[in-house]
Design the sequence.
C-alpha cells in the first residue's frame, strides 16, 4: 500500500504529534498534509477531498473536535477512512468515534512509530476491499438486470411462437403451456398440409437464451420441412442434420416427438427423438409410445424408426414435456408417468382434460415448478 500518491491528512492540535506522525508517514512513502484542528482539517478536506485518501485525527481539539469532524465528513457523503488517535484512558471515546464512522483507532504511546504505518496500511487495504466489493455488487446488480431483461424478452418470444389456432376437421386439440421462472425451451405446434395433420412437441436442453434461440430455430426448421415433406422420419432426420450444424460441439440437444395423422388411413405415424413416453388412450386402455431413436443434435447420421398406430374414433393422444412427470413434491418424489396415465381415460373434452391434469400436478408439487410444463392432447372425434 506504500504509494507516494496516497495522501494522508494528519490532524492534531499538538505540533509535536503532527510532526512525528508526518515524519513517520513520509518515511513510509506517503504524501502528508497537516491541520491543527477539525475546522482546519475540514476546510482542507473540502478543498481537496478527492485527493485525501486517509485522515488521522486526534479527538480532543479546539474549534472542532474529532467526533464533529467525523460527522461533518460523513454527512457530506464521503467514506474516506479515518483513524482516531487516542490515549490509554480514552478507549471508550475512541469506540464511540468508531460508532460514529471512524475506521480504526491508534494509541498515542511509545509504540506509535511502529504501529502507525501498520494501522494505515490495514485501514487502506480494508477500504480498497470495501470499494472493490461495492463495485462487484454494482456489476452484479447490472448483470442481473441485463439477464432479467434478456429472460423476459426470451419468454415473450417463446410465447409468441406458440400456435394461435388448433382447429382441424375431425379432431379436437387442446394445449397447455406453463413457463417456469427460467428461460425454457419447450415448444409445440400443429398444422395441416396436403390432407394430413402434422403435430410436434419438443424440449431443448438447458435454461438459457441459447435454449430459447435453439427452440425458435428448430421449430421453424421443422415447420418448414413439414409443409414440403410427408414422412416424419425423413423430416426429423433432415432437421437433425441442420440442428447438428447449429449446435456444433456445444453439448446442446433437443428431444422431440413428431407425428402425422393421415385421415384417409385413420392412422398415426410417430417418430420420437429421445422424447419422454407419450400415451395413446382408447377404450380404457393406455399405450405408451417410447422413443424411436436418439435426441436431436448429437450426430448427423442418426436415424429414427416410425411407430404406426391406428387412431380410432374417440381415442386420445397425450403429448407432454418432462416438466409434467418430473414435478416433485416436498419429499422429492416425482409426479411420474403412472399418475399421468391414470388421468387419461377421461371422457372430458381435451380442453378440460389439460386443466384437470395441471391442477393435479399443481396440488402434488404445491405449484413449485422447476421446469416448463407443456401438454398437447389430440382426440379423434366420433
Sequence:
Amino acid at each position: 500500500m506504500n504509494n507516494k500518491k496516497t495522501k494522508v491528512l494528519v490532524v492534531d492540535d499538538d505540533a509535536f504529534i503532527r510532526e512525528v506522525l508526518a515524519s513517520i508517514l513520509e518515511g513510509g512513502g506517503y504524501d502528508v498534509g497537516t491541520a491543527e484542528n477539525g475546522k482546519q482539517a475540514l476546510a482542507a478536506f473540502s478543498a481537496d477531498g478527492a485527493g485525501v485518501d486517509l485522515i488521522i485525527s486526534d479527538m480532543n481539539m479546539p474549534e472542532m473536535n474529532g467526533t464533529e469532524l467525523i460527522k461533518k465528513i460523513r454527512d457530506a457523503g464521503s467514506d474516506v477512512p479515518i483513524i482516531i488517535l487516542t490515549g490509554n484512558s480514552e478507549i471508550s471515546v475512541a469506540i464511540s468515534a468508531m460508532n460514529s464512522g471512524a475506521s480504526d483507532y491508534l494509541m498515542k504511546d511509545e509504540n506509535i512509530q511502529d504501529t502507525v504505518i501498520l494501522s494505515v496500511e490495514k485501514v487502506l487495504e480494508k477500504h480498497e476491499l470495501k470499494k472493490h466489493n461495492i463495485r462487484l455488487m454494482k456489476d452484479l446488480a447490472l448483470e442481473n438486470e441485463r439477464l432479467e431483461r434478456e429472460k423476459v424478452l426470451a419468454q415473450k418470444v417463446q410465447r409468441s411462437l406458440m400456435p394461435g389456432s388448433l382447429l382441424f376437421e375431425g379432431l379436437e386439440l387442446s394445449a397447455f403451456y406453463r413457463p417456469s421462472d427460467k428461460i425454457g425451451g419447450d415448444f409445440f405446434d400443429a398444422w395441416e398440409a396436403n390432407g394430413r395433420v402434422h403435430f410436434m412437441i419438443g424440449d431443448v436442453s438447458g435454461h438459457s437464451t441459447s435454449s430459447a434461440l435453439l427452440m425458435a430455430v428448430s421449430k421453424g426448421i421443422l415447420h418448414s420441412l413439414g409443409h414440403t415433406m410427408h414422412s416424419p422420419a425423413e423430416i426429423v432426420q433432415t432437421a437433425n442434420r441442420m440442428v447438428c450444424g447449429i449446435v456444433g460441439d456445444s453439448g446442446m440437444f433437443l428431444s422431440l416427438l413428431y407425428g402425422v395423422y393421415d385421415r384417409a388411413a385413420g392412422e398415426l405415424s410417430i417418430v420420437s427423438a429421445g422424447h419422454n413416453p407419450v400415451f395413446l388412450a382408447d377404450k380404457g386402455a393406455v399405450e405408451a409410445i417410447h422413443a424411436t431413436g436418439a435426441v436431436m443434435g448429437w450426430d448427423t447420421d442418426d436415424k429414427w424408426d416410425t411407430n404406426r398406430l391406428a387412431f380410432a374414433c374417440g381415442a386420445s393422444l397425450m403429448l407432454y414435456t418432462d416438466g409434467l412427470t418430473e414435478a416433485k413434491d416436498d419429499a422429492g418424489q416425482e409426479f411420474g408417468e403412472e399418475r399421468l396415465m391414470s388421468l387419461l381415460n377421461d371422457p372430458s373434452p381435451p380442453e378440460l382434460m389439460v386443466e384437470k391434469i395441471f391442477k393435479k400436478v399443481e396440488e402434488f408439487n404445491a405449484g413449485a415448478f422447476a421446469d416448463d410444463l407443456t401438454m398437447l392432447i389430440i382426440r379423434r372425434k366420433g
